[in-house]
Design a protein that fits this description.
Order of helices and strands: EEHHEEEEEEHEEHHHEHHEEH
Largest sheet: 4 strands, antiparallel
CATH superfamily of the largest domain: Jelly Rolls
CATH architecture of the largest domain: Sandwich
Mean pLDDT: 82
Number of helices: 9
Strand content: 25-35%
Helix content: 40-55%
C-alpha cells in the first residue's frame, strides 16, 4: 500500500507496479521484483512551489517523478541558489543521497504540480542486498547522474555566458534524445529564470546571449523553442577550451 497526499487530503491506495516500469531504474526488473518495490513505495502529489526535500533533512527516501517538473538545488549561506538538475516525469533523483548519506545535500521544489513516488531507504536497501538485478540497475542510474553532474560542472566552470549557453543547448538536445545537428529543435521547457540559474547568469544576460546567437546565424528562436542553424559552431563554443 502507499499513501497519496495532496494538501490536507490523505488516503491509502495501492501503488500499481506498472507505474514503476517507465523509470529506467526499474524498467528491466521482473514482475515479482517490481511488485516487491511497489509495496514499499509511497506516492505524493505536490502543488507548484511546494518543497519536496530540504537540504539538511534526513535522507530517508529517494524520489521518482511521475509527472511534473522538480528543481534540485543547493543554497549557499548568503541565500544564493545553484540549480543542480531539473527532473521531469520519468526521471529519478537523490538515490545516492538516500543510500549513502545521512542528510540530503540539496533541496528540491516542485516547479509545477507534480506526482512523486517516494522510495524508502531501509526497505529498498534490503531489496538491493537480495537482488543483483536491482543493484546493477542502481549502479547504471548513478553513472547517468554522475554524467549529468559532470556536464553541469563543465558548463559552469569554463567560459563566458555564450559558451555556457552553447554547452547547455548541446546537453539539452542529448537529454531529449535528439542529435545535436543543424535543424535540431530544442524545447525551452523551463522559465528563463530557471535556465539562467543553471548557467549561473541573469535572465537578461541569457536573453542577450540568445539574441547574439540568432544575429550570428547560430540558431533561430521559435516561440518556446530554438532551432539549431549551425551545430558545428555552437559545438565549438561549447568546448571548455574554446576562447
Amino acid at each position: 500500500m502507499t499513501t497519496l497526499s495532496h494538501g490536507k487530503e490523505t488516503c491509502a491506495m495501492p501503488l500499481a507496479a506498472p507505474r514503476l516500469k517507465r523509470f529506467a531504474l526499474f524498467g528491466d526488473l521482473p514482475p515479482v521484483l517490481l511488485d516487491a518495490v511497489a509495496q514499499v513505495c509511497q506516492r505524493r502529489v505536490y502543488a507548484k512551489g511546494e518543497s519536496v526535500a530540504a537540504q539538511g533533512d534526513p535522507a530517508a527516501h529517494f524520489f521518482l517523478v511521475e509527472y511534473g517538473l522538480v528543481k534540485v538545488y543547493r543554497a549557499s549561506p548568503d541565500g544564493r541558489e545553484q540549480t543542480l538538475h531539473l527532473v521531469e516525469g520519468g526521471q529519478s533523483f537523490a538515490e545516492a543521497a538516500a543510500l549513502s548519506l545521512a542528510d540530503f545535500p540539496a533541496s528540491a521544489v516542485a516547479l509545477s504540480d507534480a506526482a512523486v513516488i517516494l522510495v524508502p531507504k531501509k526497505p529498498f536497501e534490503a531489496l538491493l542486498a537480495a537482488h543483483a538485478d536491482l543493484a546493477r540497475a542502481m549502479i547504471a542510474s548513478q553513472a547517468k547522474w554522475l554524467r549529468r553532474l559532470l556536464d553541469l560542472t563543465s558548463g559552469m566552470s569554463f567560459g563566458d555566458v555564450a559558451s555556457r549557453l552553447a554547452r547547455w543547448l548541446v546537453v539539452a538536445a542529448e537529454r531529449d534524445g535528439a542529435a545535436f545537428t543543424d535543424d535540431a529543435v530544442i524545447e525551452l521547457k523551463q522559465k528563463k529564470t530557471v535556465i539562467a540559474g543553471q548557467l549561473h547568469t541573469t535572465p537578461e544576460s541569457l536573453s542577450r546571449a540568445l539574441a547574439r546567437f540568432e544575429a550570428d546565424g547560430l540558431l533561430r528562436r521559435e516561440g518556446k523553442a530554438v532551432r539549431v542553424l549551425d551545430a558545428a559552431r555552437l559545438s565549438a563554443l561549447a568546448e571548455p577550451s574554446s576562447p
